[in-house]
Amino acid sequence: MRSPDAVVVHRAPLRPLLAKELRDIVSGRALWTMLLILCPLVGYGFFQAVALYGEASSAARDAPVLAAGLSPLDGVLVPTFGALYLVVTLLFPFVAIRSLGREKETGALRLLVQLPYRVPTLIAAKMTAIFGAWLAALVPAVSALVIWAALGGHLYILETANLAFGHLLYGLLVGAIALFAASISESSATAAIIALAFTIGSWVLDFALAGQPGVLEWVARLSLTQTLRTFEQGLLSIGLLLGIVAAICGFAALSAVWLHPGVPLRTKFVRSIACVAAAAIVLASATRIRTSVDLTEDRRNSFPAADQRALAELREPLLIMVHLAAEDPRYVDLRRNVLTKLERVVPRLTIRLATTGQSVVGSSSDEAYGEIDYSYAGRADKSRSTSPREILPLLYALAGRPVPPPAAGEEYPGYPLVAEARPALLWFLGALPLLIVLAWRWLRRAPQIAQPIKDGDQP
Amino acid sequence: MIGSTAIQRGRTAAYVPALMEVAGVTKRYGEQRALTDVSFGVNAGEVLGLIGPNGAGKTTLLEAIAGLLPVDDGRILWRGTPPALLHRRDFMFYLPDGLRPWDDEYVARLLEFFAAAYGRPARITTEAIGALGLAPVLRQRIGALSKGYGRRLMLALALIAPQPLLLMDEPFDGFDLRQTREVMGVVREVARNGRTLVLAIHQLIDAERVCDRFVLLADGRIRGIGTLADLRAQTGMPAGGLEDVFLALT
User: Fold this and answer.
1) Angle at the Cα of A406 (from A404 to A411), degrees rounded to 5?
2) Which H or E run includes A106?
3) Are residues A132 and A280 in the same domain?
4) What is the C-alpha to C-alpha distance for residues B93 and B112, in angstroms, rounded to an integer?
5) Does A451 fall in a domain?
6) What pLDDT, in 10s, does the model give residues A53-104?
7) CATH code for the domain of A366
8) In total, how many domains does chain A have?
9) Predicted complex ipTM
10) Domain B2-91+165-249 adopts which CATH fold?
11) Given pLDDT bands bounded at 50, 70 and 90, which one contains residue A362?
12) pTM for this entry
């Protein structure tokens, strides 16, 4: 039973805590330095993207076939947001670490945990502040989109929103990792090393293990940058979304476990194992979810609508045996053009690599190398093509179905644009940094004090 | 054992259960023992001084009581019942030594944040500001405060916090003589208003002026517990000051 003289604040108000966390992150130099660095990076990325897009558009002016290949998502949006990705990977951890690292270094954490807030509430408030910091980091990229639209550029709202959403999830994931790093470290410097080990370590995974078969392929999938790739391709994958959310919640939960200095180390380890196990179960479940939505205007991740409908009706198991090494460019081509699209639409599809563990060079003497075997409903066929124009008719033949006629008016027109983005550099190199500095000064202004408090009347 | 005996004596003599009891607290850092079987009681409304030289284990003990440091053995009892670790903050507020938290924050905003978190009325904040003379620095950043004002700000947070027991580590550190006397007055006023205070102090003269009872700590062990009169009787020094008693017992 609780003692009558206990002070229990049942519902400590969240607003003061959120305001304090936001002030904490805004009052430091880390956020503003990051924003100032972000401006020229986004600006130059945007300028270069528009210039290259303009060159490609010049050639495509009189050729509709070339114009159809010009998508602002690939040409402008992804390169412009690329600067945000770079900054979030390398600098955002420092901003996120500040939300807890300074409190640990100055001893403020010992006051914070005595306030009437539950530890998960404290972590949630810090994650909210980190989200606020990410929103601030989005300003240069959003301004680039506004300039692009003002120049006459085309924006397809769904693919643009999907890309921004992917960057949001990536930012929150980096933020949660940074928070966890701060919660297990005594100093911000150590936390930064741990957080960067995750983010830069992902690059190492990308470069060293990409295309490797077997376990290495699975390890490479743990790379944080993988979280963005799908969104950059215009896909909203439910499995990936669930996986990222599980990872964010997992790191946030671990931060909560390690936050309170009074909890014995053994208890923290036991709770950590429980957190990791729970997150691993959700992650494993997420990998089994194949549902995804193609949000691109050009439907690049899908076959034409008639083929989508026909392929969705293939109820029998379809087995595809690929005699190609994982790093073979033909396999990359096949995956991009056919396999990933089939995975999204055929209900019972199994894809196997027959040459697991072999390299391109080692497989060249194998006569079957390069063949792709297709088995459906007791019938089988093989092909060496990586093009859907040849593979889809083959599949329809195996299924005993007619090739569906292409629907009219489905062709993506493409959005060529020749524009001069040089004046935009004035915004990114001059006006926007100036506005950021002014915002910094305005937010750091001293508060107004109510007269009775100012007077501090004697009790 | 001195501590346990003292608790027993307190119980049998006055039949008043201690507000808080520290029972057999032991803390080790590797092979080194920072606290060894520390036991004592704190009575409601008193100002108890934890006295000892630097390195005696005062800070470790306060952090252990507040639940901010895991201990190897022992319990903290509140009116005879051990509260869960995360519920100790419902009973006590610990003010660490040498804190300069949230140094980019403005003084007024930190005070407002604490008051809002605890749902305290503005009057309490105003009184704390007045009692500790913080009005001139309300619009200053905490990082820009002098050491004295920094200490006053921390004390103000403790005054705003509503818990019945305040644990303060070196509350007079950083003050000159006049300021120390002023702050002692504030501390006594807080005790008069019904709150209980446990103060870790290494300046024996300050402790003698402000505390009702003392726990003498050296090398992580309790060397004596009681009022100055009790300690004098224990050491056979009827006219001795706290310094003399402390030296005799440690």
Assistant:
1) 150
2) helix A92-106
3) yes
4) 17
5) no
6) 999 998 887 777 788 889 999 999 999 999 999 999 999 999 999 999 999 9
7) 3.40.30
8) 2
9) 0.90
10) Rossmann fold (3.40.50)
11) low
12) 0.88
Q: pLDDT tens digit string along A230-250? A: 999 999 999 999 999 999 999
Range of the domain at A333: 314-399
Chain B contact for A103 (CB, 8 A cutoff): yes
Half-sphere exposure of B84 (CA within 13 A, CB side): 4
Q: Are residues A76 and A117 in the same domain?
A: yes
Is A309 among the domain residues?
A: no
Amino acid at A336: R
Check if A12 contacts B (Cβ < 8 Å): yes
Tokens of B3: 């501590």
Same domain as A324, residue A281: no
Q: Note whether A188 and A80 are same-domain residues.
A: yes
Torsion on CA atoms B172, B173, B174, B175, rounded to nearest 10 = 20
The A residues from 60 to 99 touching B (CB cutoff 8 Å) are none
> Would the CA dihedral through A327, A331, A336, A342 be positive or negative?
negative
Distance from CA of B69 to the nearest CA of A (A): 4
Of B15, B74, B36, B52, nearest in space to B221 by CA: B36
Residue boundaries of the structural domains of chain B: 2-91+165-249, 92-162
Do A195 and A73 belong to one domain?
yes
Mean pLDDT computed over A167-171? 96
Kindly state whether residue A196 falls inside one of the protein's structural domains.
yes
Which of A177, A182, A190 is closest to A99 using CA atoms?
A182
The minimum CA-CA distance between B61 and chain A, rounded to whole Å, is 13
What is d(CA A271, CA A267) in angstroms, rounded to the nearest whole number?
6
Residues B207 and B242 sit within 8 Å (Cβ to Cβ): yes
Contact check, Cβ <8 Å, A261/B87: no
The answer to whether B167 touches B198, Cβ cutoff 8 Å, is: yes
